[in-house]
Amino acid sequence: VVAGGWQQDTHVKPAAETSEVRGVSQVFAHPAFSQEILFDSDFALLQLDRPVPETSCIGPACLPGDDFEGVGSMCEITGWGMQQSGGDLPSILQQAVVTTVAHDRCEANYAQANRTVTNSMICAAGTSGGGVVDACQGDSGGPLVCLHRDRFVIAGVTSWGLGCGDAHYPGVYSRVTAGLDWIRDVLAGRLKSPDRGRPQVDFKGRMWAVVTGPCGIDQDGCIHSSSFPRQYQSLEKC
């Protein structure tokens, strides 16, 4: 985990001077996470192997209160995701302003595409220069931080959507208030991380390995897909 990093290569100055790198000692996945209902309860908490100091580039966002509704809240999203669907990934951290959308409106719009927006989700989108502001592929897991009662709270976690920048389909985020009880239990030490074990993978001296699926890897360590060069769609498996 890199805190305070604003460009992908944290070894390049000045990025190295502002970032702190930590290992992960435990991973807590939300027990209600489901892909049967698309990414319901799409949360995970990471316990770092040692604390991270607060600096001018590193600071926490507060947890929201149970009463946080967030409809119409001004929020910010950050990430290294694509700036348009199928586009290139930036090397510099991107930031954008969005506004949370009424749940019933978001739910109704996605229902037209046979997608379910549950109560554990919150939707948001924005506009800039006549275009739609949205998260995109590669932003998943990033924060939706909203201004609430003169402080910034982490209201959501970037989760999914249909395409990027579609005015009819706002970005969908995991709603943090829906997981507050679970978060508090983890922080209080009342829940233990399930020991799922790590699979033993033989990388054969390469950076990558194909563990499952129809993809292949050549003698140079390049992974090839039987579908190449066709673009993959959302949620499509290799």
TrEMBL record:
Q: Which CDD domains match?
A: Tryp_SPc
Keywords noted in UniProt: Disulfide bond, Hydrolase, Protease, Secreted
Q: Encoded by which gene?
A: Tmprss6
Read off the Pfam families from this record.
Answer: Trypsin
Query: Which Gene Ontology terms describe the biological processes this protein takes part in?
Result: proteolysis
Q: Which GO cellular component terms are attached?
A: extracellular space
Its name, as the record gives it, is Tmprss6 protein
Q: Which residues form the Peptidase S1 domain?
A: 1-188
Citing just one GO molecular function, the answer is: serine-type endopeptidase activity
Write down the Gene3D superfamilies for this protein, in alphabetical order.
Answer: Trypsin-like serine proteases
Tell me where it mainly resides.
secreted
Kindly indicate whether the keyword Secreted belongs to this entry: yes
Cellular compartments annotated: Secreted
Q: Which domain of life is it from?
A: Eukaryota
